[in-house]
Amino acid sequence: MASEDKEKNNQASATDAQTSDPASATLESLVWKELRECYDPEIPVNIVELGLIYAMRSEPLPSGGHRVEVLMTVTSPACGMSEILRTDADTRIRKLPGVAEVEVAITFDPPWSPELMSDDARMILDL
C-alpha cells in the first residue's frame, strides 16, 4: 500500500511540474501574440480583440514539444472568412518554436455577440 501511495504522489508531482512549466507559459504568450496578428480582412480589429477566441491552451507532449489547442468562433455562422481565419491562426501557431501539434477548432456555441469585444475594439469600430 505504501508503494502505491508513493507512486500516486510521484504522478501528482509530475503533473504539477507540467502545469507550472515555464516553457508552456512562454509559449502561451507567443501564441496569444500570433493570434493578435490574425485579422478578418473586412474588419480592422484582430480576432482576439473581437472576442473570437474562446479558449487557448498548451500542454507538453511526452514525445517532446507542445500541443496547442484553440477554440474560436466567427461573427456569424454564415461568415465566409471562417476557414481563412482558422487556417491563418493554425499556420501562425505551427511556426512557433516548440509547437509539435496544433488544433484550431471553430464553434458556434455560444454564438458570438458584440459584448465579447474588448473596449478597444468597440472604440475602433465606433460601437
Short description:
This protein has helices at residues 2-19, 22-35, 82-94, 119-124, and strands spanning 53-60, 66-72, 99-106. It is α+β, with helices and mostly antiparallel strands and 127 residues long.
**How many strand elements?**
3
What's the CATH class label?
Alpha Beta
Assigned CATH superfamily? Fe-S cluster assembly (FSCA)
Query: Overall pLDDT, averaged?
Result: 85
Strand order of the largest sheet: 1-2-3
Largest sheet: 3 strands, mixed
Q: Shape from CA axes? A: elongated
Report the radius of gyration as a whole number of Å: 18 Å
Q: Unreliable stretches, pLDDT < 50, 5 or more residues?
A: 1-19
- Stated plainly, the CATH topology is called GMP Synthetase, Chain A, domain 3
Question: Helix content range of the residues, please?
Answer: 40-55%
Name the features.
127 residues; elongated; 4 helices; GMP Synthetase, Chain A, domain 3; disordered N terminus; alpha+beta; three-stranded mixed β-sheet; 3 strands
